[in-house]
Each structure stands twice: as C-alpha cells, then as structure tokens.
Amino acid sequence: MTNLPLSAFIICLNEEAYLGNCIESLESCAEIVIVDSGSTDGTAALVQSYIDKGWPIRFLFEPWRGYAGQKQFALDQCSQPWCLNIDADERLDEPLQALLPSLIEAPADTVGWRVARRPYLIGYGYTPDKVRERKNLRLIRKGRGAYDLSQKVHEGIVPDGKVEAAATGSLLHYRPLIIDEQILKENKYSTLKADQQFAAGKPPRPWKMLFSPPLYFFRLYFRNGLWRCGFPGFIEAATGGVYAFLTAAKIYQRHALQRKPNFDDMERDRRGK
What we know:
Protein name: Lipopolysaccharide biosynthesis protein
Strand content: 15-25%
InterPro entries: Glyco_trans_2-like, Nucleotide-diphossugar_trans
Pfam families: Glycos_transf_2
Helix content: 40-55%
Family: Belongs to the glycosyltransferase 2 family. WaaE/KdtX subfamily.
Number of helices: 8
Distance between the termini: 83 Å
C-alpha cells in the first residue's frame, strides 16, 4: 500500500495490550508519532518491534502535560501535510482506511474531517454502523488546528477553517471495561470536568443533577441508537448518565464547600463544655 502524506499521532501510557492493533490499522500513514509519558509495561518493547520491522514510527518520551497538552505536543511533532489523532485503544475500520485517500484530497478550503467512533460493548462486540457516537474532528491539515489547553478532559482540536464530516468509516474503540472499572473511569473524567468548570467560574446548576442524567441516557440510548445493542447498549448509556450526574454533583459540592466549609457540630458542643 502506498503511504499517504499523513501523520498519525498517539499518546500512550501502559498501552501494550491495545497499541499493536492500533498501529496495524495505520499501515497507509507515512508517519506514526507515538508519545509515551512513562510506560512501565511492555509498550516500549512493542513499539520497538514495529520500528525494527520498518514501520515509520517516531517514538518519543514526554512527561505528562494533561490530555490536551500531551496531544498538542504530539501534533507539533508531526511532519506530514495531514495529521490524524487516534488513541491507543482505537483502530481504523476498513471503510475508513479505504476513505482516507479521498479525505486528504479535499479542496483547500476544507481544513479537517470529523469521524464517527464505534465502541466495543461487553456481551455484544462493536456497535453496528447505525450506532455511532457524535462525529469528532480527528483529521486536520498541519497548522490549521490546535488543542484548547484549558480543557482537562474531552479535549478536541479547534480548527482554523471549514470542517466536513466523513460519510463512511469509523474509529473502532476497543477497551472492554467491566462495569466496576468503567465507573472508576467515569468518576475520574467527571472530576476533571468538574474541576475545569469550577476553575472557570461556572456557577452550580443543581437542576442538572435531576435532568442531565436521564437526558444523557436518552441521547445515547435512543438518538445514538444504543437500543439496537440490547442490554450491553443499555449499560453503556446508563454509565453515561452516571458521568452526567457525577459531574453536576461535584460542581455543586465544590461551590457548597466554598459557601459553607465542613464543620462538625459536635466539635462546637465539645468546645463549649
């Protein structure tokens, strides 16, 4: 396969179990930039094995800068006219691989492409083509987009120009976490989101604790089509609702602690005696 004028960039930390299949799906890229923030598993050895086979990989170490900062660093290292952001646990499906040549031949006024993403659900597999998350900007012309470094989570490229949506193809997201681990992930991401909004001075909206979780669930389950995946789809949508609740509740509590710091009434009683 002819290499495309395309740099794929990946940030990673202890991704030995997932990274190989990600790399394999990028065989048409002229360059693969992998930025590691200190893996202690076999990630480095895995990447070196691909380098030894002649894969066009640049493997770099960079201390953790946060999600947006780390991805911006990786993007800055890319040398090709087009740059593709892909996570270590994602892969290009075959339709997207086939579509890439036409995407990067877009007219000059198109600076980027939004791409669909399909997760792997325990008990089901990859969601079907009709079940997709919102398309996100993943393919950008070099120098025509950058990450918003104020974003602690759900970071994305901010484009400088027109962005189109890819008609076919998807990123396949393979990280089948059992619900025990998925809830820990939702807890971590909701903390990052709450801290970001609190630092930005966003006021608490207690009503979001009531309405955001079901709205988040219904968006994923009905509008995005997770109902097609049975109970695995229900679980996926429900954990999204948990994330929405945790985010709203954490923002509320951060503001509540500012207004009224915790104080044990029994401590007042004890001192008064």
